[in-house]
Amino acid sequence: MQRELREGPARLRVGIKPDGRAPAREGTEIKSADGATIGTVTSGGFGPSVNGPISMGYVAKEFAVPGTPVQLIVRDKPLTAQIVPLPFVPHRYAR
């Protein structure tokens, strides 16, 4: 706990936009572009606002930069994806 207070969390929640139409569901392994395991998907499905699949998950903080390419292991096959900023769609209301 002390290390996390001093250095920040070891992993961060990120948005993930898979390429193509296949969704990545809870428990899907997230790998870096070189194949190292860097995190896990916590939720995912079809996003009607973005007209495609979206997911959220936790990754090591050095991979949490928007635009970072990642691979999602869906049905034992790597699918390309990238880290995107949250929220997936900016809000359109005024406070």
Give an overview of the whole structure.
With 95 residues, the protein is mostly beta strands. The chain is built from one helix and six strands. It has a six-stranded antiparallel β-barrel. Strand 3 and strand 4 form a beta hairpin. The protein is globular. It starts with a helix and ends in an 11-residue tail after the last strand. The mean pLDDT is 93.
Reconstruct the topology from this structure.
Blueprint: H1 2-7, E1 11-18, E2 29-32, E3 37-47, E4 52-60, E5 69-74, E6 77-84
Antiparallel strand pairs: 1-4, 1-6, 2-3, 2-5, 3-4, 5-6
Highlighted features:
95 residues, 1 helix, mainly beta
State Rg: 14 Å
How large is the share of residues in beta strands? Answer: over 45%
| End-to-end separation | 36 Å
Low-confidence stretches: none
What is the mean predicted local confidence, pLDDT? 93
Please identify the oligomeric state. Answer: single chain
Give the strand order of the largest sheet, numbering strands 1, 2, ... along the chain: 1-4-3-2-5-6
Helix share, percent: under 10%
Number of helices: 1
Quickly give the structural class. mainly beta
Could you give the count of β-strands? Answer: 6
Instruction: Tell me, briefly, the overall form.
Output: globular
Largest sheet: 6 strands, antiparallel, barrel
The helix-strand sequence is HEEEEEE
